[in-house]
Amino acid sequence: MAEAKVLVPAGMLGAGFTAESVQRGIALGADAIAIDGGSTDSGPYYLGSASPKMPAEAIAADLRILLVHGRAAGIPVIVGSAGTSGTDTGVDWVAGIVEAIAAEEGLSLRLARIYSELRPEALAPVLDAGGITPLPPSGALDQVTLDRCEHIVGLLGAEPFAAALDAGADVIIAGRATDTAVIAAYPLLHGCPPGPSWHAAKTAECGGQCTTNPRGGGVLVSIDDGGFTVEPLDEDTACTPMSVAAHMIYENADPNVMREPSGTLDVTDARYEPLDDRRVRVTGSAFTPQPYTTKLEGSGIVGYQSIALAGIKDEEVLADIELWADSLRDYVAYKVEDVLGLPAGDVHIEVRCYGWNAVLGDIDPDTGPPREVGAVLIVTAADQATATKVVKLANPYLLHMPLPGMDHLPSFAFLSSPAEIPRGPLYEFLLQHVVAGDVAGPLSRTEISEVGR
Amino acid sequence: MSDARTIGEVAHLVRSKNAGPFWQTLDVFLDDDASFDAVAQAPVLDPAVIGPLYRVDPATVRIFRLPSIRVVKISFPRRAAQGGIADRDMHAGQQHVPLARLRLDGAP
User: Fold this and answer.
1) I want to staple A10 with a disulfide (CB 3.0 to 4.6 A). Which of A15, A25, A71, B92 is the partner?
2) Residue pair A212/A243 in contact by the 8 Å Cβ criterion
């Protein structure tokens, strides 16, 4: 009978967990430790700039626990989406931290680096051959959009992880992967059925999110021929049928199905039963193999931003805040043309009023004057110097803009001096597309090295 | 009989989140079967109502009723892709409010 137990210490590498929770999972018989290192959830900057969201110290603190205890137990440690966005730079950054910890702790290990970054020029012939198709709500991809991407990653499935494990890897640091692939790889390699393997992986991908105490630490999933069992690593925390079933809906547009590169998980007929007051047994998860596809993520630069913030407490202005914000924007746009000689379309100017409708815009159900507003002037231009110049030009108007008909110039509460804050490049996600597996050829590359041997 | 309560008043929790950079999803958690039924069967739980509420095409609105976990889930494409120049909510974490304010009987 096939059986595999995977320890998932947290939803993200760098989020923090205790050595005790990992030791407890190992004592329960964990065969592998798996953790996700990133996501698109923090926005397009991290992929576009290939830079990590978390500080190196937070990654190192978590990795040290996993490497020391994983090596002592002789079980593999698997990390996906390294460095937040899973670019090649992110893989090398996290692998470098692994090497430093191994040297400090006197560990010897076989390290697999799996890269999944793709260059636009490598994808161009695939696009020409009709091998890239859109996912809703996107339309067909064109070469211009592909070329605009600063970085592109393809989401790895379980296969390259399983191959690296088969090659004897003790530690795998991988580029962008599905959150579930890092967890499903070990059970799939050891013959567990795909339905329970993928469903267990989805259940555990956010660590303790599937428990009654999402802040209480990670989980252990035990997959076998008939289904899987999930239990929290923290003895004071429980999994209930409700907490486990409810996690399937988290950050997932469709609560019943989830597409992976190799097929689709369907949990419509899954049953969730308590084994005791802390553990849940799940059966009935189905997985249908489909032609292999790799989802792409890409991020490119829209422009460069500078901002300034003025606080408004004046009741007369707050009573007509929409008119004030529109007047300010229009006046700054006029000055940009008049003084800087820039055509209106070259600079994007927005006045976003926090405290009024900054978050919801035209779908905000609230009406009536706000109590206080933080008016953020947001300027986006083709280069940083122009964006900052426009905010500097706007400085006296952001400070003193009156309402039409006012007989005096009010002065608002600036956040800072200088008022202008250069924000750097503004990135946007450009790809919501998949590559057909049989058109593109191998999309990932694995390099294996011996560390400390 | 018309129900003057809002979805937020009936629910244990209404939340919103990105489902990838191009979609957002709203989850309504109900405490018991009666409140689940009140929301799941409410006439306002209709793409023709949710679409205009969020100013998205009703044809793109997907509504799921999950009685076993007493959850109603609504998903639709983001009007502005996450993090782009028009995005106002990086994680789509505050987009549940218009839904929570919606009255079950559809009255304003």
Assistant:
1) A15
2) yes
Q: What is the DSSP letter of A411?
A: -
A356 in B contact zone (CB under 8 Å)? no
Confidence of residue A439 (pLDDT cuts 50, 70, 90): low
Taking Cα atoms as reference points, which of A256, A239, A360, A41 lies closest to residue B71? Answer: A256
**In angstroms, what separates the C-alpha of A251 from chain B's closest C-alpha?**
4
Please answer yes or no on whether B17 and A432 come within 8 Å at the CB atom. no
pLDDT-based confidence at A102, cuts 50/70/90? very high
| Pick from A40, A30, A96, A106: nearest CA to A63 | A96
CA A150 from centroid of its chain's CA atoms: 17
Q: What is the pLDDT of residues A179-229, one digit of tens each?
A: 999 999 999 999 999 999 999 999 999 999 999 998 889 999 999 999 999
Which amino acid type is present at position A446?
A: T
pLDDT in tens, A375-408: 999 999 999 999 999 999 999 999 999 999 999 9
SS3 A137: coil
Mutation target for A interface from B57, B72, B74, B88: give the one with most A CBs within 10 A: B88
Question: Residue A84: which residues within 8 A CB-CB, separation 6 or more?
Answer: A37, A38, A39, A42, A46, A47, A51, A52, A53, A54, A90
pLDDT for position A365: 95
Please tell me whether residue B82 adopts helix, strand or coil conformation. coil
* 3-class secondary-structure state, position A133: strand
Q: What is the pTM of this model?
A: 0.97
Residue A367 makes CB contacts below 8 A (sequence gap 6+) with none
Nearest CB to B73: which of A255, A358, A428? Answer: A255
Tokens 């070259």 found at: A346
- Determine the residue type at A83: G
pLDDT digits (tens, 9 = 90+) for A3-50: 999 999 999 999 999 999 999 999 999 999 999 999 999 999 999 999
Nearest to A30 by CA among A278, A265, A229: A229
Helix (H) or strand (E) run with residue A378 in it: strand A373-381
Looking at residue A438, what is its pLDDT? 60
- Half-sphere exposure at residue B66, Cβ-oriented, CA atoms within 13 angstroms: 27
Q: Is A47 helix (H, G, I), strand (E, B) or coil?
A: helix
Q: Are A360 and B97 an interchain contact pair (Cβ–Cβ within 8 Å)?
A: yes
CB contacts < 8 A, A to B, total 100
* CB atoms A253 and B62 under 8 Å: yes
Q: What is the pLDDT of residue A215?
A: 85
For the residues of A253-314, what is the DSSP string, one character each? SSSSEEEETTEEEE-TT-EEEESSSS-EEEE--EEEE-S-EEEEEEEEEEEEEEEEEEEE--
